[in-house]
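tmp note - Large ribosomal subunit protein uL24
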Amino acid sequence: MKIIKGDQVKVLLGKDKGRSGEVIASFPKVSKIIVKGLNMFKKHVKPQNGQKGGIVEKERSILVSKVALICPSCSKTVRVGYNIDKNGIKTRICKKCQAPLIKKT
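out:
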């Protein structure tokens, strides 16, 4: 999967089409990600162990095919490519501007 935690993405399909946000979790086995503040749903929670009950809003996972990565250097939605240097280190690159996509920690 080419989109990882910390990337900025733009939603291409669904109710949040056109909105963008940061990936807070990725699940490569099922090709899904969770984007901060997008694809929200309301969950009714019962009170447990002294915590209050009520209605809580949470993010729901989105398929990776429904989002596009935003390149930090050219600020456009791009496809991700890979580049292998002489030492055998594989890095992600932007297909439009060829800039390396650095992973945030």
